[in-house]
């Protein structure tokens, strides 16, 4: 018996990295998943890699009309959703003193605004007892050079989780943030050597995290194993923001 048997999950930004690893694991555990990404070709590859019980919907989480189309597809194909893992997000350096309006708008429009509407637009389809997971970042718990705007855009998610856990209490919908440390995904592929050194120096095991190590935590938060975890933040960071 799988931990997500009979459940329907939406995972955004899931054509690579930790969200793709989560989609694979959710399906192995019995869920049907709807995954998104902006590029159709990557979406097709991801659907193929997952292999079964998956629908790919081309959608940009920063565009509200795309989110409407995503949930129209979920409604038409399954009629409801049990788990939302809002993972689409991006980083980017913007040192204080040089921050542009465009950098601010880019980061907040996807990481914060996109996450908010991904959750809000799911609510009419969400079954009572569901689970909402937002992909945060430990960046908001540390002071890191050039990352204040990114960190701020993710800090908001921590606050959303507290408020929404209260607002959704009657429906027994839990809301949590999963905050990764540095994970070996495409986002970190072209990391400058100094940045990689900085990350590794803060991790006791001296090795970046792997997408599968995020997927197992996402599964925990999606399933009944975390039935008493709500309004919380779970850091999966190898200790980086804890020590
Ligand atoms: N990697 C890390 O070390 C790290 C650490 C802390 C937090 N995070 C957070 O974890 C999440 C996932 O990161 P990752 O490193 O696993 O990502 P990744 O491997 O770089 O993949 C990003 C995924 O999101 C999709 N995507 C990007 N922009 C999108 C948009 N506007 N709408 C929909 N999909 C979009 C990409 O496909 P398309 O390009 O085709 O859209 C791709 O599938 C992000 O929110 C990130 O901020 C990452």
How does this model look, in words?
The protein is of the alpha/beta class. It is 40% helix and 17% strand. It has seven helices and seven strands, in the order βαβαβαβαβαβααβ. It has a seven-stranded parallel beta sheet, sandwiched between helices. β5, α5 and β6 (174-180) form a beta-alpha-beta unit. It starts with 7 loop residues before the first strand and ends in a 7-residue tail after the last strand. The relative contact order is 0.15. The structure holds NADP nicotinamide-adenine-dinucleotide phosphate. NADP nicotinamide-adenine-dinucleotide phosphate binds next to α1 and β2.
- Can you list the ligands bound to this structure? NADP nicotinamide-adenine-dinucleotide phosphate
Mean pLDDT level = 98
Overall, the morphology is globular
Give the full name of the CATH homologous superfamily.
Answer: NAD(P)-binding Rossmann-like Domain
Strand content: 15-25%
Tell me the CATH topology. Answer: Rossmann fold
């Amino acid at each position: 018996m799988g931990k997500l048997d009979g459940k329907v999950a939406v995972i955004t930004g899931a054509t690579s990295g930790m969200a793709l690893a989560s989609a694979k694991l959710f399906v192995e555990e019995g869920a049907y998943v709807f995954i998104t990404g902006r590029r159709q070709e990557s979406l097709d590859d991801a659907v193929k890699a997952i292999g079964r019980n998956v629908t790919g919907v081309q959608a940009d989480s920063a565009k509200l009309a795309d989110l409407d189309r995503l949930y129209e597809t979920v409604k038409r194909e399954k009629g409801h959703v049990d788990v939302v893992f809002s993972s689409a997000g991006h980083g980017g350096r913007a040192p204080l003193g040089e921050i542009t309006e465009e950098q601010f708008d880019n980061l907040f429009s996807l990481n914060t605004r996109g996450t908010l509407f991904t959750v809000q637009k799911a609510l009419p389809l969400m079954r009572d007892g569901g689970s909402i997971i937002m992909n945060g970042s430990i960046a908001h718990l540390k002071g890191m050079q050039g990352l204040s705007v990114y960190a701020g855009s993710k800090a908001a998610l921590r606050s959303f989780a507290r408020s929404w856990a209260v607002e959704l209490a009657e429906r027994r919908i839990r809301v949590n943030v999963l905050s990764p440390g540095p994970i070996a995904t495409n986002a970190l592929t072209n990391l400058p050597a100094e940045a990689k050194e900085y990350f590794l120096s803060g991790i006791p095991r001296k090795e970046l995290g792997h997408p599968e190590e995020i997927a197992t935590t996402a599964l925990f938060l999606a399933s009944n194993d975390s039935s008493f975890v709500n309004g919380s933040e779970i850091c999966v960071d190898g200790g980086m923001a804890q020590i």
